[in-house]
Design brief:
338 residues, alpha+beta, Arc Repressor Mutant, subunit A, SH3 type barrels, 4 domains, five-stranded antiparallel beta sheet, four-stranded antiparallel beta sheet, 9 helices, 11 strands, 23% strand
Length: 338
């Protein structure tokens, strides 16, 4: 018969080394679950406890030996947990203060609810997320009867119809027709897309798909989709349509993109930090020479005109000439008004 009484700070056997390495955080998490479980199962066996928590009996005893160092402030014999496991049966005393199972704070519940709602909004099959969300809301209400149910409105309704159509197109493998605003050209376009996935990057929702207008894979910001209609056409992307490696960024240069070199004065040097680029040379006076990859030269023309005399296109020469011609036309129009 073995008699190990941690409550009176004695142990008749040396501590057994655990067979598997684990972090202190992992062990703490188990101990916080172990105490209330043992209090609900008074006299449970060491072997059964080991099976319940997926550890060895030796590790159970090691955890019990650690518990005598735990308790409430004061840390005298009266405040520390008393653990006994005579003849393989475990008894805890003086552990009521930490007997309650761990619960989420209201802030934690709100954060988790927001994440689950966002996840549920884009999943084609969102049953698991919705069931988890329902359990979270029920548990929060039970733990805070006077606080009411947590419900977050994450959508003002403007994107709900678009997202619903995109999800339906993905689920049914159908092509979708988009009315899409292109910010770089300040124009609205019509295009058919075979959707591949919906992703969230830097707080923005995007749909990635094979664009039949561009004959290439493209990203479309959901908040710039003015309308989406599922078509009665197969939406399976062609074999050459492969998802891009995002690396946490939506912009991924392709071989067909135009390489542009811009020189900018100090007041316009911010463009190197704002736009993804291929490299920057910074001068002592604060000016820069930056190399960009752009899919649409119109973006560069609009940028240079907006910066006035603080930036100019160095290469390619045809784009530099196009920007200069557009600037002269704008000046001529102002002159005509005057």
């Amino acid at each position: 018969m073995s008699d190990k009484r941690v409550g009176d700070r004695r142990s008749s056997a040396p501590r057994t080394t655990r067979s598997t390495a684990e972090t202190a955080t992992q062990r703490l998490s188990r101990l916080l679950d172990l105490v209330p479980w043992l209090l609900r199962h008074e006299g449970v066996g060491v072997e059964e406890t080991a099976r319940e928590f997926g550890i060895s009996p030796a590790q159970v005893e090691s955890d019990l030996e650690l518990l005598f160092l735990c308790g409430t402030p004061g840390y005298t014999h009266a405040e520390l947990i008393d653990a006994q496991w005579e003849d393989g049966h475990i008894y805890l005393a003086n552990a009521d203060d930490i007997a309650a199972p761990m619960r989420l704070t209201r802030d934690e519940a709100v954060t988790l609810t927001a994440g689950l709602q966002a996840l549920s909004s884009i999943l084609v099959n969102s049953e698991v997320a919705e069931r988890t969300l329902a359990k979270l809301r029920a548990a929060t209400t039970a733990g805070d009867p006077g606080g009411g149910r947590i419900a977050l409105d994450l959508d003002d309704g403007s994107q709900h119809a678009v997202m619903s159509e995109l999800k339906r197109a993905l689920a049914d493998h159908k092509r979708v027709h988009l009315t899409y605003y292109v910010a770089t050209r300040d124009e609205t376009t019509e295009r058919d897309v075979d959707p591949m996935r919906i992703v969230n990057l830097d707080g923005q929702w995007y749909v990635e798909g094979w664009c039949h207008r561009a004959n290439a894979v493209r990203f479309f910001r959901v908040d710039r989709i003015e309308a989406a209609t599922v078509l009665d056409a197969d939406g399976t992307p062609p074999p050459e349509a492969t998802p891009r490696e995002l690396d946490d960024e939506v912009f991924v240069p392709s071989d067909s993109d135009l390489t542009v070199v811009i020189e900018a004065a100090r007041d316009a040097a911010w463009i190197a930090d704002y736009y993804p680029n291929e490299g920057v040379v910074r001068n002592t006076d604060g000016s820069i020479r930056v190399t960009l990859k752009v899919a649409d030269p119109a973006l560069v023309r609009r940028l240079i005109l907006r910066l006035g005399g603080d930036a100019r296109v160095v290469a390619p020469p045809q784009l530099a000439d196009a920007v200069a011609d557009e600037a002269r036309s704008a000046l001529a129009a102002y002159a005509a008004i005057g």
